[in-house]
Write a structure and sequence with these properties.
alpha/beta; Rossmann fold; 2 domains; 7-stranded parallel beta sheet
Length: 370
């Protein structure tokens, strides 16, 4: 079976699909990944990668988001709040996805969450499409509305609807989301890219360790304020703070002695194994990695979808949420010492560990494509 993975060009959208791609390849299937821009870094995973925009004519996701800063900064409560940007992210890449699918001729298309180019590429070939969930977000009727939202694409390719054979792989822990009865549950296996983990970060220290990340900064407009508040607060907490700033232009001159700034790429999940808390911006990768590790979270949401996911973290009791202005030493100490947070995080970790791993889903995908 030939399986083509199509992704929005952002590592945080593509990396969650890597373990399934590995599982398919280990089972003897032909696998290729098609994306562009910063997501091409997935080539370090050992997968075959096709750049569907080698000339760089398509705008990056950061450029798309920059056209509507009002939407990015909005406190979203549902997917529809960001629909303008979601549709633009489909419109900008759909032609390239259809082109590469037509050349590679897969038997099955697996696509990133909320990327309409995937099912439309599959529809042009008459093959099944599978959405690979990568967050706590619910897609609602996004795909069913594509013919109304981008009718020009349907007309250009003579499409009358979505592929008749479709599936959804849901990696979200059931206790944190409203599930869909037709979804296939699959365990979230963190893949954060390769990196060299300093040996001293592989073992716990005498005092608590706190991981800090703001992800790729695509959806973190309050980054500078959050880091400034964190540095000021960290000085009053008896803990080691490891701040991950790989690829991010952010000053750290005011970081106190107990804050370690890491500018090299470092696998987040590996670091979390020695941490008692993670402070982050509400990105899906940070949330799911922390849940997989059973680590309590302090979420400072920044960017429309992160508010939806931060609410889910708070409601499940695996973390607390705050604004950047509310981050202080007392809040950090309370999050570190809260036994209820740790207990809830351990419960969700065990819940996720009991979900079917990617290798167990391969046979269902083969059946879908048969």
């Amino acid at each position: 079976m030939r399986v083509l993975f199509l992704s929005t060009p952002l590592a945080s959208h593509l990396y969650p699909m890597v373990p399934l791609a590995w599982a398919l390849r280990a089972a003897g299937h032909d696998v290729a990944v098609a994306t562009t821009g910063p997501a091409l870094s997935v080539a370090s995973s050992g997968l075959d990668v096709i750049d569907f925009d080698p000339e760089g004519r398509c705008p990056s996701l950061a450029q798309i988001n920059a056209t509507r800063p009002d939407i990015v900064a909005r406190r979203a409560t549902r997917i529809d709040d960001g629909m303008v940007l979601l549709i633009e992210a489909t419109r900008q890449y759909v032609d390239r996805m259809i082109e590469v699918a037509g050349r590679w001729r897969p038997d099955l298309v697996v696509h990133s969450q909320l990327q309409g180019g995937g099912p439309l590429a599959a529809a042009t070939l008459g093959v099944p499409a599978v959405e690979h969930g990568a967050s706590l977000l619910r897609t609602g009727d996004f795909y069913e509305r594509l013919d109304q939202l981008i009718p020009e694409t349907f007309e250009a390719y003579g499409l009358t609807g979505l592929p008749p054979r479709r599936a959804l792989l849901d990696v979200a822990p059931p206790s944190m989301v409203v599930g869909r009865p037709d979804a296939w549950p699959m365990r979230y296996v963190p893949y954060n890219g390769g990196g060299v983990l300093p040996v001293d970060l592989t073992v716990p220290t005498d005092r608590p360790r706190v991981a800090v990340t703001i992800g790729t900064n695509i959806m973190a407009p309050n980054m500078a304020q959050l880091l400034s508040r964190l540095y000021a607060a960290a000085a009053g907490v008896d803990a080691e703070f490891v701040v991950l700033l790989s690829g991010i232009d952010a000053a750290a001159d005011d970081a106190p002695d107990n804050v370690r700034v890491v500018r090299e790429w470092l696998p987040l999940r590996a670091l979390l194994g020695t941490c008692g808390l993670i402070v982050h911006h509400g990105g899906a990768g940070s949330i799911l990695a922390a849940l997989d590790a059973g680590v309590a979270q302090l979420v400072v949401p920044s960017g429309a979808p992160s508010y939806i996911q931060a609410d889910a973290v708070r409601e499940r009791g695996v973390g607390v949420t705050a604004t950047a202005e509310e981050v202080d030493a007392e809040l950090l100490r309370r999050a570190l010492d809260d036994e209820k947070l740790r207990a809830a995080a351990a419960e969700v970790r065990d819940e996720m560990a009991g979900m079917p791993p990617p290798a167990a889903v391969v046979s269902r995908l083969v059946e879908l494509a048969s």
